[in-house]
Amino acid sequence: MNFKTTPPHHLVLATDLSARxxxxxxxxxxxxxxxxxxxxxxxxxxxxxPVLEEPSWRQPQDVALAIQEELxxxxxxxxxxxxxxxxxxxxxxxxxxxxKVAEEVEAGLILTGVKRDSAFDKALLGDTVTGLVRHAxxxxxxxxxxxxxxxxxxxxxxDLSEPSKVALARAVDLFGLxxxxxxxxxxxxxxxxxxxxLAYEGELRSDAIQNCxxxxxxxxxxxAVDKIGVVVEYGEPDLLLxxxxxxxxxxxxxVSTHGRSGLLGVLLGSxxxxxxxxxxxxxxxxxxxx
Length: 290
Hints:
The protein is an alpha/beta fold. The protein folds into two domains: 1-146, Rossmann fold; 151-290, HUPs (Rossmann fold). Helix content is 39%, strand content 21%. The chain is built from nine helices and twelve strands. The protein has helices at residues 22-35, 63-78, 94-104, 127-135, 162-175, 197-220, 237-248, 262-265, 270-278, and strands at residues 10-14, 38-45, 85-91, 109-112, 115-117, 122-124, 140-142, 154-157, 180-186, 229-234, 252-256, 282-286. A ten-stranded mixed sheet has the order 3-2-1-4-7-12-11-8-9-10, with helices on both faces. Helix 3 crosses helix 4 (127-135) and helix 5 (162-175) crosses helix 6 (197-220). The termini are close together.
């Protein structure tokens, strides 16, 4: 199977004009420049309510036009070259609007921000983010961190299944080989019953590491085996990943949908919410199209 892809020629940023989307906009502009991709900012206009006890000239007129002008002004202030950047303000439910525009412009990636709990500086998922993750047919990048640099420390979570190959292939094509780590959460079956548990787990770990190396070779070629790091640990994938991201200051986690077990096997269910809630880094969710 040929997994080779190219960076997306068009990006879509879902924005609600709140501060939550500022980080996503910064990242969208950076990726657009790096990949020489077009960028469309999308805002969904659900309803317009009259402003009570205000004179007529302060009542909403053409709200969509006003929002579009506001977004265009913001982009102009942040980007030196805006020729490949456009703004769309469309009436409708946010999830539906974003997916429709992404289809119309043939986007290869959707970016979105998250709410934040000001008391704990914790990312909180909203209905739109959850809906996009569940229903988008193209990768969705959930941006949590402030833009300080291009993505450098990138972890690809895998269960070594066929669907999870898509996540590794996409990560290689977008970001190269040098900054990647394949993260595999294994299960040491019957370890508690062994007399020498550490030796048993060590033997299993060696086998799992070799399996990961074979996995890398199959997806990215033999030359990638010595360039992509491998981490194998025992335990729950999402909990281990949360700790690894925090301890190693990871910039981005890449995961695929429709894996066979653990985190990836139920990514569209409760684990998706848990990983997006808990992992401090940005998260790129890649859908397996098979």
